[in-house]
Amino acid sequence: MSAAESIDTIVVGGGVVGLSIAYGLAKEGDRVLVLDEGDDAFRAARGNFGLVWVQGKGPDMPAYAKWSMDGARLWSDMADDLTRLTGVDLQLSQPGGLAFCLSDKELEARSRMLANIAQTVGEEYPFEILDARATRRLCPHIGPEVAGASFCPMDGHVSPLRLLRALAKAVIELGSEISPNQRVNFIEYRGGAFYARTAASEHVARRLVLAAGLGNKVLAPMVGLFAPVRPVRGQVLISERVQPFLSLPTASVRQTGDGGVQIGDSKEDVGFDDGTTIEELSRMAARAVRCFPALAEVNIVRTWGALRIMTPDGYPIYNASLDCPAAFIVTCHSGITLAPQHSGPLARWIRGGPPPEQLRHFKAERFHV
Hints:
There is one protein chain. The protein has three domains: 3-51 and 161-229 and 313-367, FAD/NAD(P)-binding domain (3-Layer(bba) Sandwich), CATH 3.50.50; 97-153, no CATH class; 230-310, 2-Layer Sandwich (D-Amino Acid Oxidase, Chain A, domain 2). It is 30% helix and 22% strand. By secondary structure, the chain is an alpha+beta fold. A hairpin with a 5-residue loop joins strand 14 and strand 15 (261-263). Helix 2 (16-27) packs parallel to helix 6, helix 2 packs across helix 9 and helix 3 (62-86) packs across helix 6 (160-173). It is built from nine helices and 18 strands. The strands form five sheets. The chain has a six-stranded mixed beta sheet, with helices on one face.
């Protein structure tokens, strides 16, 4: 058996997006090789908030709202499958989620935005706008400055690190391989196969999926694809473990399954700087305390910055190459919510199945003016 015949698909990128696709392909019978750059890479997957989130997604693209809703609906089955295969508890919980508003003006603006999404989606888009009293019934520990909140029953959260572990373990259990410290520098297509070169080795397969996050911008043109992505930094704070007080995730504060409180809502255009700043951490902490005054007495034990992978309009890119058949690109900043979509319908499309209904809206050609 030749090298090209021993591997069906090379997936470049070992984050949540790449591993979700690799898991889906392996479930369908592919022999997959995941080339993972290593721990010194910019890793959105290890710095994200862990939300499975629907509300507010796709305010100007109904297809993305539907894509996110379908992903949220599939999450429970995916979590069950991964846990059965790997024994890893993902700490998935989908009790619904809240987005707090600290003024009537904020609440009115959020109500208009969600109502507009509901009108354009063309199917049931579940959400409620709650006043302060109704919000307090769901979340008793909120502070007096909370004017109300939006609630969506489809929202939830998961442990992103446990998800990464489970996906990696599942890929291996299904007979595929993850190769770490493999930064792909060059890709060549010849003779119906893809040759992916790193500093020390070359890997060959008949199918290629680029899921390398910010690295897709450089790799995509090598196989006739286009990835206009840029970094957007998000900063996160983690508290010490505290007694359970927050049973529902919120858009900017959630209590993890281990008891710590995670705080984060920043979006910063600072290039490839994944550091933290006192100014932004202080702003996020201050808003969190306004929402939950008891947090003022809680110690912060960890902070970090991470880089989102953002396209010009903020929505995913899913493309097949016309120049190099069987080369695909997957670029997305919402890899947690969309993990079931990537491991399910998208993986089946990559293997030659029918394209998902919303796929035509996510082609990179929309950026060619």
